[in-house]
Amino acid sequence: MAGSLNAGAAFVPPPNRWLITVSVMAATVMQTLDSTVANVALPHMQGSLAATQDQMGWVLTSYIVAAAIMIPLTGWLASEFGRRKVFLISVLLFTTASALCGVSTSISQIVLFRTLQGIGGAALVPLSQAVMFDINAPKDFGKAMAVWGMGVMVGPILGPALGGWLTQNYSWRWVFYINLPIGILCFLGMLATLPESRNAKSSRFDFFGFISLSVGIAALQLMLDRGQLKDWFSSPEIITETAISILGFYLFLVHMFSSRRPFLDAALFKDRNFATASVFMFMVGMVIFSTLAVLPPMLQNQLQYPVLLTGLVTAPRGMGTMVSMIIVGRMISRFDARIIMVIGLSLITSSLWQMSHFSLLMGYWPVVISGVTQGLGIGLVYVPLSTVAFSTLPGHLRNEGTAFFNLIRNIGASIGISVMMFLLVQNTQRLHAAMAGHITPYNMTNNPALAADHFNLGSTAGLLALNGVITNQSAMIGYLDDFHLMMMITMLSVPCLIFIKRAKPITPDPHSMVLE
Question: Which of 32, 227, 426, 458 is most exposed, with minimal Cβ within 10 Å?
């Protein structure tokens, strides 16, 4: 027996707690890093695999859809078969699939192996969060979530820079091979130290609930990923996927509140803090991950930054996150979590205001300063929010709770990224048409810049050069509009904090979880 939870008894930490922490956090970093590290390698993969642009989209979509479907299943699997077994199998599957992705020679192979990678990676983040709660005393939940949050947030931030460096200096295959040493060490560390945890009572698997939720999530993810490519609701495919998604979620909700043993326990949403924090996490996920998706393309395409420089100027954002998470781990036991989150949201709002004033003529310091400011704000929001969400949640709901909490964050990120990319394309086209409409041979003569020889409207080269400038300007304004919208969303999320109550952690339920 590594440790035990007893009502009213003092918390007894398991042996080798720090080694357990390192092992599960390595799994978290590996999974979150892989969610973005492959993005910058897609053009190189496309040429190597002789694939079309549409086919390359499935390299990302297959992973996202598989992970989205499997995340809700994580709670039931961990409760039924034991968290240790599920964790070890997930790490083994993820690592093996990474190696297979690296040796793939066709688009069909890599899509298949990315699907397996998504299935294996889905459980890593929610289970690592659940383990961090179980191996730390309630009074240390804030510090535990600070450590866990670093792994969750640093991976996506460093992913593009690392992926670009590996692709440029070695091969796109190394964005997958890099998981092998991490996965092997993570597996061995957990095999030696991770205690088992399981529900004392077995539960019947709710096939209808799982299938309806999986269909809803898969259809939603496909709609979001392919919407821009298919011109959204002008496409029968997107309309069909939307209808299927709505029907799937509707059937799932009706079944969850009417069934005696639903796939997702309705008691989760009776906890006020968890329910409110989930809504808040949805909104925060939209902003945080949308910024990650929008900023690097702007730097590379509009400001002509190379991949490595893009990684260098965006890396301080991750440093700001790590610093704030270290600080907030000590603050959260002394101050109201809601006050800390207000400060964090204010910093995120300030950073987005700075980003909405970016210029094509600026240096890299505005990017660094706004990134550090946003990183500090992310840590001050993410850690208290994760702590508050589970501070009053019973122990027997923790597996399902962490799975749902991460699922709602991913859905928020998917919706946010799709909306921002859609608005970027639409605004760029609209602004391009408006700006081009004001260019005539008459007003060009009064503008020395436009009257230059390389903008000669009588030559094809001049027209192309002028069109390039207008496109660049209109796209930059489109990015600024996205940042402004994200700033407004962040400001509007602040009132959600009034629904979060300050509560003491509950006493663990001795009948709900057994640590062996």
Answer: 458
In 170-306, which residue ranges form alpha helices assigned H by DSSP?
A: 174-177, 179-193, 207-227, 236-258, 272-297
CA 450 – CA 463 distance, rounded (Å):
11
Are 235 and 163 part of one and the same domain? Answer: no
Q: Which domain range does residue 211 map to?
A: 206-262
196: helix, coil or strand? coil
Task: Specify whether the CB–CB gap between 133 and 7 falls below 8 A.
Answer: no
Helix (H) or strand (E) holding 198: strand 197-198
3-class DSSP state of 447: coil
As beta bridge partners, residue 198 has 514
Evaluate whether 182 touches 188 at the Cβ level (below 8 Å). no
Which pair of tokens denotes residue 273?
């803090």
108 occurs within a structural domain: yes
Give yes or no for a contact between 373 and 354, defined as CB atoms under 8 angstroms apart.
Answer: yes
Residue of 495 and 198 predicted with greater confidence? 495
More confident: 457 or 64: 64
Q: Give CA–CA dist 293/40, Å, rounded.
A: 11
Spatial contact of 212 and 252, defined as CB atoms under 8 Å apart: yes
d(CA 404, CA 73): 9
Number of domains in the chain: 2
Band (425; pLDDT cuts 50, 70, 90): confident
Q: How confident is the model at residue 30 (pLDDT cuts 50, 70, 90)?
A: confident
* Paired residues of 197 in beta bridges: 515
User: Does 438 reside within a domain?
Assistant: no
Select from 133, 132, 148, 116 the least CA-distant residue to 28: 148
Convert the pLDDT of each residue in 282-336 to its tens digit. 888 888 878 877 888 888 788 888 767 877 788 788 788 878 887 887 787 778 8
Q: Decide if 17 contacts 135 (C-beta within 8 A).
A: yes
With a cut of 80, say whether residue 396 has pLDDT above it: no
- Residue 196's CATH number: 1.20.1250.20
Q: Could you tell me which of 263, 215, 207 has the C-alpha nearest to residue 76?
A: 263
What lies within 8 Å, CB to CB, of 405 at 6+ separation is: 126, 129, 274, 277, 278, 281, 386, 389, 390
